[in-house]
Specification:
By secondary structure, this protein is mostly helical. 70% of the residues lie in helices and 0% in strands. It is built from 3 helices and no strands. The protein starts with a helix and ends with a helix.
Amino acid sequence: MSTFKNQISISRWHTGSRIAGCLVALLGLTVLFGWAFNIHVLKSVLPYFITMKTNTALLFLFSGLALLLQPASVSGRNGGMLVCALFVFIVSTLTFIE
């Protein structure tokens, strides 16, 4: 019985991370769309906030994709997820060093 409860718990966390990944990727994509077509309302999360920078929006997109591409099982590996996560790590590290 304990194994069944663990499977349900893992499934819920997996579903939650996929929903979060969709929302984060959509936010990044929306801001990139705002920058591409010079729509000021789409460049920030809320109208009275400062605009989100392009590299931040790109990292939001790739972070969301990494969450979406995660494997269903703990032992599974996904190259796309690792590439997205590595890209986020490298760009954020270079931005921090700058």
